[in-house]
Amino acid sequence: MKIGLISLGCPKNLVDSEVMLGLAQQAGHELTQVASDADVLVVNTCAFIDSAKQESIDTILEMARHKTDGACRRLIVTGCMAERYRDELKKEIPEIDAVLGTGQVPEIVAAIAAGHPEGHRSGRGRSSDRPDIMPMTFYRPAQSPSSSPQLLPTYIYDADTPRLLATPKHYAYVKIAEGCDYKCAFCIIPKLRGKYRSRPHDSIVREAERLAARGVKELLLISQDTTFYGIDRGERGALARLLRALNRVDGLEWVRMLYLYPTTITDDVLDAMAESEKVCNYVDLPLQHASDAVLKRMKRPGTRASYEKLLHRIRARVPGVSLRTTFIVGFPGETEADYAELESFVQGVGFDHLGVFTYSHEEGTSAHGLTDDVATKTKVARQNRLMKLQQRIVRGAQKARIGQTVRMVVDGPAAEHELVLRARLEGQAPDIDPLVYLTECDPAEFTAGQFIEAEIVGSRGYDLLARPLLP
After folding, report:
1. What is the mean pLDDT of the chain?
2. Inter-residue contact 193 to 179 (CB < 8 Å)
3. N- to C-terminal Cα distance for the chain?
């Protein structure tokens, strides 16, 4: 059958989607990017914040229309929203034929097979004679603190799992662990993804070698907390050893870590980053806030002083490192003084890349019960103020870069103009960070995944402008 899959949310979710596509292809199914042509449509959902949940619902409803207006015989919903709202989804959207949680990725093949023409019955919604492929045992998140203990997902893929990359050919995400053991007040992820579990070192290295053999130049290591890698297995120094091993993989050019955590960044990891030629001097460290009072209510470790000390240590041990972080404004009880502390912190540190989210109440989290919420208007105003501050910081840093010769990777043609190329520096991750736009060049002379030298000649907003330096 023809299978269409829509992946929503973060790169960690994207890896799950790639595994499902690989399993479907291995089972003999044809893949399509045209939803109206698909016999089976799969929506891999996100449910982290309100906007992500709304996007997931909108996408499910859009795909459901293909059951009457297109070729679709079966609609499958997977991922975090499926894990969190299994029964509600099946009740409110009867066009859904199967719901698979985060721990049921391998069951996608059985879910697809249940839509074979011989077993198909026409009509919308569930039918009494439609085969129900839902397993007898499934994982369901607790609905309240008084609920009975939940069965948490335990699945994680390995190097031998079929996987069809959905990223450009020259870079790929590699999930080195799954789940999370932290109890941040605003986060539902531990209930959706289970306890932290690291993949074996050899499995990750073998996957990296196979990806490099397929032409992948940049690996992006991801998990809920990448610097926690190996700690759950009692393996001291596991991440530093992994970085050094990946640095030796032939064919790779860059190895980039995302989603680090302030209490698990050790000196051996920073030393491995500084000493390994292929490991990017790039630290993605979501700090969430800088006011001690807000951090305590968020159940986040550390203080403003400890964060400043950590960032100084990172810059000292990894010269030229690029720092990326994210913050949440409007957490319950956040005062103007708390926000002013955050502004002062951002001004003092001077992050290379910064994202700001407004807090939203999420059921199932400990913060959901807090009543001293901040008005939406105030949240948005603080978000805008912090981003304007970041714009001024970036503008100054960009001016200082003009005239520099730097190494970058070409990602491909720019959507805005056919004679302009998109590229990235070592300090820029795909999709989340600004870009470098290459002008004064013939795009036909360059290929995606090519590493080149270029001169920075200007800037446009957060992005840089450059011209290639031909050998």
Report:
1. 89
2. yes
3. 49
